[in-house]
Amino acid sequence: MTDLLLLPGDGIGPEVIAEVRKVARVLTPDLQIAERLFGGSSYDEHGVPLTEEALAAAKAAKAVLMGAVGGPKWANAPRDKRPEAGLLALRAGMEVFANLRPALCFNALADASSLKREVVEGLDFMIVRELTGGIYFGSPRFIEDVPTGGKRAVDTQVYTTAEIERVARVAFELARGRRNKVTSAEKSNVMDSGLLWRQVVTDLHARDYADVELEHILADNAAMQIVKNPKQFDVMVTDNLFGDILSDISAQLTGSLGMLPSAALGEAGKPGLYEPIHGSAPDIAGQGIANPLAAILSFEMALRWSLDQAEAADKLYAAVIKALDSGARTRDLGGALTTAQMGDAVIAAL
Ligand code: NAD
Ligand code: IPM
Ligand code: MN
């Protein structure tokens, strides 16, 4: 049985996943690793970004780790065949509805952020992004010609009570093991789905999680507060689109988008999907300079959450801190190391 299925993907995806392979060879040599094409590279070979066989392999593995997908090469592919559509199909197919995106500022990087050291030092903030619903998946969805000229494009945001409740439950459970506070972000002032979101979270809190502090915030204010004073937050739960945006903002608090890992989880016992939150970075792809730490830290999350290897995860986490403490920096962090040299620095620290 495959323990870990690697989906390197496109652009810098294969470059950062190569470093995960190197780390795994040293840290967990017995791990059964398999690999499939995914995204644009799958489209080029098979005509689709995610084959049925690859999805079946993902569902049969204990954990899936992807690099990144997409790029200008596929910008004009039909929308349902685009690399990003493959990623959405993978998330939906694996039913990984809760996306944990931790924004952690390592001490060694407190000066790498574009924000002041005192704002980000010691930051440990977790975004729980709903991942299989909302405007990413709602129907109807189309672009059509308008008789009077021009076109009309429609996307639909849909959330059900059950979808909101299950992701909010994950946030409350996580908060109990952390600083016991959940902030729920939506736009209940303008959106019906936001109104329902607030109601469902409020009800669930009263019913099952009254011991956890709950705060509601409008998503635009949340974006501002994350930059102004991120340390006020512990766990933030939000919908698919707001979670996408708020987690990129949070990434910059940690020094670089190249630092943020993520774990997408479904029902207990099902495989998790692990991915750096960054994309395929076409502007630096092929140069060997991408930061592999988001991918390596995503592997760390996979070891911890899906592969039952907490000890190896602890070792890897400590090695990343040691490498950063010793001054290892890729270009995005203000240094000069290549992707491979950063991987080597982590392995040396192991
Ligand atoms: P991006 O995350 O690829 O890049 C944004 C910026 O961050 C770029 O300047 C890039 O060089 C930099 N960056 C990202 N990761 C880095 C790393 N590991 N090390 C150093 N610098 C890094 O976002 P984008 O440019 O908006 O999107 C490019 C493509 O990636 C698009 O096709 C998009 O759809 C796709 N994308 C995929 C994923 C994913 O697969 N999970 C996530 C986001 C974007
Ligand atoms: C992410 C990405 C994806 C998203 C895209 C590539 C579909 O931006 O994982 O954050 O929007 O979810
Ligand atoms: Mn994103």
Entry summary:
This protein is α/β, with parallel strands linked by helices and 350 residues long. 41% of the residues lie in helices and 17% in strands.
Radius of gyration: 20 Å
Mean pLDDT, as a whole number?
97
Q: How many helices in DSSP terms? A: 12
CATH domain class of the largest domain: Alpha Beta
Number of strands: 12
CATH architecture of the largest domain: 3-Layer(aba) Sandwich
Helix content: 40-55%
The CATH topology label of the largest domain is Isopropylmalate Dehydrogenase
Element-level helix/strand string: EHEHHEHEHEEEHEHEHEHEEHHH
Shape: globular
Helix-strand makeup class: alpha/beta
| Small molecules held by this entry | nicotinamide-adenine-dinucleotide, 3-isopropylmalic acid, manganese (II) ion
Q: Which parts are unreliable, with pLDDT below 50 for 5 consecutive residues or more? A: none
Give the distance, in angstroms, between the N- and C-terminal Cα atoms: 27 Å
Please state roughly what percent of the residues sit in beta strands, choosing from under 5%, 5-15%, 15-25%, 25-35%, 35-45% or over 45%. Answer: 15-25%
CATH homologous superfamily placement of the largest domain: Isopropylmalate Dehydrogenase
Largest sheet: 10 strands, mixed
Catalytic activity: (2R,3S)-3-isopropylmalate + NAD(+) = 4-methyl-2-oxopentanoate + CO2 + NADH
Binding site for Mg(2+): 220, 244, 248
Subcellular location: Cytoplasm
GO molecular function: 3-isopropylmalate dehydrogenase activity
